[in-house]
């Protein structure tokens, strides 16, 4: 039975080939001493003498600039070929028909030619990320009838022509290029495409005629001003839509995508929440916009919503019970807004609540009493000066509490709060005193000085209470003696 032989060393990461007599693993610490023939800036056919059963060849950061013609042609068992972080200016020629994975990321390839991929009918993965390719067209990718994944991120692609004849393609990524327009015929033959990304381009609209099979569409970091959902309403299988970092001022019609579970529209120009959201939505990210108000109508149908991100907006109004219908919500982010208080009647299912960077002054039992499942509470950088003991006692699962950046008034009442938190095993971050002046800058969670002062104060109070109790008992005894005398007198009479 044939085994695998692996060589792993700097510059020449690994090659694997079947050979009955080769050991399971061979490691060469010095590439130049062990394989002087690999130190050249060019890979040649002679380098592979005796390696006709080679299956995987991976060369990383070796400085290789070229590959001699027909170098890999005779390697009929080669399945994986990878040249990462080298200086290749073209795709190696005459690649074997057995190839299934070709990764040429981070080289200097400027153009693709039909001959580069001729006969590669078994190729499933093609990666050409971070090269210098300026265009992509059907003529460049012939014969790739088995291709499943195509990644050309980080090039200089300005034009994309169609139709791309890649009938089995499922994953296509053209991120961080220079596209301004996507012709409608590009996707005509891509009827099995499920994941498509055009993030980081200059597109002003979502491409038309997208395949019905699409599950995920990424359009972040473009120049979208309007999204016309009527153009994509046929995407009945679409589950995830990413539109962050564009110029959208409103989003209407997203309810047409009935199976959408994730919608990300952060870093846009939204002033209101998107109306009539799909009922199956599980994650909604509207962070870093200009949203001012959270009201019930936007959320009344979102019973499956689990994650809601509204941080870095200007929310000053949060209607009580606005999220009551969101019976699965576990994560709510409201950092960096204009809230003056913790919203009332939040869903009982919350496990994480982030309220950092608001203007909240109080933390009360009324606001938190229903959150029995809450594990993380972030109250950093607010205006809270005291903790409500009943509120803390009503959070049985609280594991992480963030309190720094608040003007804590370190009276001895905070010591009782500290004991409650310690008993829960809650990890508390922050809690520096702002008052009184003699305790300013100290942490009420760790300061031994505060503990000693409060223990002394407590001892004095207890002693004072004991003295008062003793005096009261003495007064009571004296009173009883007087009453006895009176009674005796009365009886005598």
TrEMBL record:
The UniProt record lists the keyword Repeat: yes
PROSITE patterns reported in the protein's UniProt record: LRR
Composition skew (Basic and acidic residues), residue ranges: 456-465
Compositional bias annotation for Acidic residues: 484-493
Record keywords: Leucine-rich repeat, Repeat
Signal peptide range in chain numbering: none
InterPro entries linked: Leu-rich_rpt, Leu-rich_rpt_typical-subtyp, LRR_dom_sf, SLRP
GO cellular component terms listed in the entry, alphabetical order: extracellular space
Residue numbers spanned by region Disordered: 456-493
Name of the protein: Nephrocan isoform X2
Native organism: Cricetulus griseus (Chinese hamster)
Gene from which the chain derives: LOC100760022
